[in-house]
Every structure is written in structure tokens, then in C-alpha cells.
Amino acid sequence: MFSPVSPCTWLYSSFPGSLHTPETECYCCSFDDYKLTTEWLLNQTNHRPKVAVICGSGLGLLADGATNKQTFRYQDIPNFPVSTVPGHEGCLVFGKIEDTSCVFMKGHFHLYEGYSLCQVTFPVRIFKLMGVESVLVTNASGGICPDFKVGDIMIIKDHINLPGFAGQHPLCGPNDERFGIRFPCMSDAYSKDLRTLALDVGSELGCSHFLRSGVYCMVSGPNFETIAEARMLLTLGCDSVGMSMVPEVTVAKHSGLRVLGLTLITNKVSLDYSREEKVNHDEVLEICKMRAELLQKLVTTLIGRCQLQSINRH
Ligand SMILES: O=P(O)(O)O[C@H]1O[C@H](CO)[C@@H](O)[C@H]1O
Ligand SMILES: Nc1nc2[nH]cnc2c(=O)[nH]1
């Protein structure tokens, strides 16, 4: 189980009713922690997923298109964190999309929930050990690029890891060579093949007009941006901003998984002091609901094709 050595344990445990106990706190997970969870899952299911889909805020129904489903609540899986954010159901769904065996995370974890980045990225290493080859990460984000509209889907071509600049990085700590090298290259974190495939599939489905490509920036949250922060992000070259995904992508790339990132633009980030609209999480979830069916079609079609692409490459 997790070793109770988080430098923050004393802080969290000093809040009455805190979610954090010495048992759930960790600084680093050991290989045995990952192994235990992987073996538990492999014993509980006959599914052997090749593709993992991480569903962000309000996007859990991406799993609905799968057949032969088997569901596990996060709280029942040894070592798994639990979801605390509305719109994150908190279960792992195994199933098939056409002939491809998949695993869907209905809800993922965030720094702002108080989890360590080792906990946030824990499932990604489980997927790797289960034999997953490609990861599709989806989430909700605010549009910084003035051309973006609410409801656009941005194919992530690159990211800026702002918490990483401040030392909040999932690969800090001892490096386990069984997963990957000490200094991984991140200039190609998002597979070019998968990005091209996403554009092709989007065009086939007639949704090219709201498919975008751009740079996603992760902030820790939980507050939405001030106008000065939003302007800074625009200057830095960010097209959208959110509070997740980058740790999972970094750990996935570190362990040699192919990554595709899709972010739904749920709101336009205010860059102007005269704008009256105020963003809130309910609005984010509302837009996710509005686009869910189309995103599901996109993801489902992509999964069949990306597995085919993977087979052809071997
Ligand atoms: O990134 P996901 O989890 O999709 O959700 C995004 O939306 C929430 C804020 O509304 C934050 O969690 C932000 O990161
Ligand atoms: N940081 C951030 N995260 C989001 N998630 C959805 N919209 C937003 C946003 O505007 N800012």
C-alpha cells in the first residue's frame, strides 16, 4: 500500500474532516503498489485493454458506446484514489469498441483535490502494466485563443506544464527505469499519427468546422483565471487552459504509451475587463453534455482506427 511519507500529511491531517489520512497520502508509489493493483484488476476481469480513455469533467459517457462492459468503482480498487469533483463519476469501465478492448476512466484526479501527482497519475501506470498501448485523454478547458468558440474540440498538439515549472511534476522523485528513463523527451508527447487520424475522422464525421489544434496549458486550479493571468497565458502561446491532463500525459509518454489529447472548449476565458460573463463549473458541465454525443462518436470511431494503425505499425 501507499507509504505514508507525504511532506504534506501533517498539513492535510490538521483539517477536520479532511479526505487525507496517513493511509491515502503518499510521496511516491512503489512498483509493488502498481503491481498489486494491476494484479487485482487482471484477476477480476478477462478484458485485456489496448486503449485507455481518460474522461474529464462531464465526459464519462464516452464509455457508453462500449459493449460487454464491466465496471469497478474506484473505492473498491486497491490503492485507487476516489473522485471528489462533480462530473467525475469515479469508476473504471472495461469494455469493447468493435474488436478493441478498452478501459475507460469515468473521472480523473486533480492536484486541487489535494492528491499528490503520484496519485493523480497512478492509473496510467496501471494501464501500462495491463498492456495498454494508446491513451486518449479528454477534458474540459477554457478557450484562450480569441478565434475559439464554445463547443470547439481542440486536438492538443503540445502543452505547457505550469505546475511542473514550479516543481509540481509527476516524474520528480526516484526514477523507476521499469517505467521509463530519467530524462524523457516531451517534444513529441502527442502522437502525430493520432492527431492526423483525429483530423481525418473528424472530417469524415462532418465536424471539421469545430475541430481545432493548439497548445493546452495546465494550471493547478481550483480558481478560474484572473484576467491578467489569462492575458499572460495568451502571450505565452497557450490556446486553452485547464486544471488536468498534463500529469497523465507526461507519465504516459514517459512509459512509452501513444497519446492523443482532446479538450472541449467549454467557455471563453475572459481577456477583457469589460466582459461581464463569469465562468462556473455548472456551465462547464452543461457544454460537456451538449457535445457528449458527438465526442462519443469521435472517440469511438478513433479507437477502432487507432488500434488498426497500431497493428499495422508492428
Ligand atoms: O480537466 P477536467 O477534469 O476535465 O475539468 C476541468 O473543468 C473543471 C473546472 O470546471 C476543472 O476540473 C478543470 O480541469
Ligand atoms: N483553468 C481553467 N480550467 C477550466 N476548465 C474549464 N474551463 C476552464 C477555464 O476557463 N480555466
Tell me about this structure:
It is a single chain. The protein is an alpha/beta fold. The protein has one domain: 3-Layer(aba) Sandwich (Rossmann fold), CATH 3.40.50. 32% of the residues lie in helices and 21% in strands. It is built from nine helices and nine strands. A five-stranded mixed β-barrel has the order 5-8-7-6-9. Strand 7, helix 7 and strand 8 form a beta-alpha-beta unit. Guanine binds next to strand 5, strand 8 and strand 9. Pfam families: PNP_UDP_1.
CATH H-tier superfamily: Nucleoside phosphorylase domain
Q: Strand order, biggest sheet?
A: 5-8-7-6-9
The small molecules bound here are: 1-O-phosphono-alpha-D-ribofuranose, guanine
* Tally of DSSP β-strands: 9
Based on CA atoms alone, the radius of gyration comes out at 19 Å
Proportion of strand residues: 15-25%
Domain module tally = 1
Q: Which residues sit in consecutive blocks of at least 5 with pLDDT less than 50?
A: 1-25
- Provide the helix percentage: 25-40%
Number of helices: 9
Average pLDDT, rounded to a whole number, is 89
Written as H for each helix and E for each strand, in order along the chain, the element string is HHEEEEHHEEHHEHEHEH
Structural category is alpha/beta
CATH topology, by name, is Rossmann fold
**Main sheet record:** 5 strands, mixed, barrel
Family: Belongs to the PNP/MTAP phosphorylase family.
InterPro entries: Nucleoside_phosphorylase_d, Nucleoside_phosphorylase_sf, Pur_Nuc_Pase_Ino/Guo-sp, Purine_phosphorylase
Protein name: Purine nucleoside phosphorylase
Keywords: Glycosyltransferase, Purine salvage, Transferase
